[in-house]
Design brief:
By secondary structure, the chain is of the alpha/beta class. The chain is 33% helix and 15% strand. The structure holds flavin-adenine dinucleotide (FAD).
Amino acid sequence: MPRSHYDVVIAGAGHNGLVAAAYLARAGRSVLVLERLGHVGGLAVSARAFPGVDARLSRYSYLVSLLPTKIVKDLGLRLDLRRRRFASYTPAGDTGLLVDNEDAARTAASFEAVTGGRHDLAAWERFYGMTAHVARQVAPTLLEPLRGRTALREVVGDDEAWRDLFERPIGEVVDERFADDTVRGVVLTDALIGTFADTATDLLANRCFLYHVIGDGTGDWNVPVGGMGAVTAELAEAARRHGAEIRTGAEVLAVDPDTGEVTFDDGAQHAVTAGRCWPTCRPPCSPGCSGRRPSGPRAPSSKSTWCCRGCPGCRTPPWTPPRRSAAPSTSTRAATSSPRRTRRPPRGRCRTCRPPRSTATRSPTPRSSARGCGRRGRTR
Ligand SMILES: Cc1cc2nc3c(=O)[nH]c(=O)nc-3n(C[C@H](O)[C@H](O)[C@H](O)COP(=O)(O)OP(=O)(O)OC[C@H]3O[C@@H](n4cnc5c(N)ncnc54)[C@H](O)[C@@H]3O)c2cc1C
């Protein structure tokens, strides 16, 4: 053990512990990070999950939105975060609702096919115009001391947005603004991920929703190349570069708030003292801690990560681009006149949701499921 006293001891080397360690060490503090597992990253880790497939995929947490660009710059992180073309695909009857970030006409056609009109598409555009405004206004405040209601309302600067996103239950607002149940479900996904909150009554759902639409001022949910483990490996590297000490396989057993003593076990028991101790995990730490989990909503989600060269066949009819002019370009003509366009795509090569070839084998493909959040350009 190099030293017996640290300015700060951090329990847990998930992304929050690592960011804190990097900033504190950068500010000249002596920092010790203690991680129970044999590796850093917490829920943000990668794995080569499939034998014979040389791709590192996120094991749990898998998309990045709430990591501010400022932190990436401050800590000099080298990350490759890729924007997804397809926000979501939600099967509905014999078709499905496809939100294509790069093709407004295709998205509009999909809305029309699923909802039978243009009402919900217009509502969608108005609604997400409003969340985009809120994202731009609120995201910068996430790195500042938390503001009170009045101060945040001033930051938002839009009474309708404040009322509909912060004050009224989000389920009520979505019911009012959208007519189609599939569209309502896609919008509300962001209010439900990770909670059992009742969207009709519980403002916890609003909080969940807001976290999903304001990340870094855009609300984009990007795919980290190399999986989330690539992000936390960079964070750990930054923390070490600035002088933080990270010990894995070291479980914090207790923290004594009176003496600042932190007891941990890495095969043998040790104690160090700390000016401050920050547990980034559920409290294991203080003497007298009951170890009981806090009551509240349980996480209902289940997720799966795929690695494939194309999207499995889905039931949305193949897309035929509209003619742009009386004399279409050769490529448009070829696309619209090809008899193969009308055939159902073979399994594993769905034309409707096929990701760009360049990224198909490098990152998980967009999900074909109702869990996709479905916003234009920002989903997880
Ligand atoms: C299935 C799933 C998918 C998710 N998807 C996303 C997503 O796509 N994007 C997103 O932004 N968020 C996602 N989240 C949420 C995200 O994973 C968490 O918000 C994030 O991991 C929290 O980071 P953290 O550093 O606070 O804690 P954690 O990642 O939980 O890290 C805590 C660390 O503390 C360690 N630890 C625990 N007890 C002790 C102890 N006594 N002593 C020492 N170490 C200890 C743990 O081993 C762990 O490494 C997802 C969560 C889940 C469960």
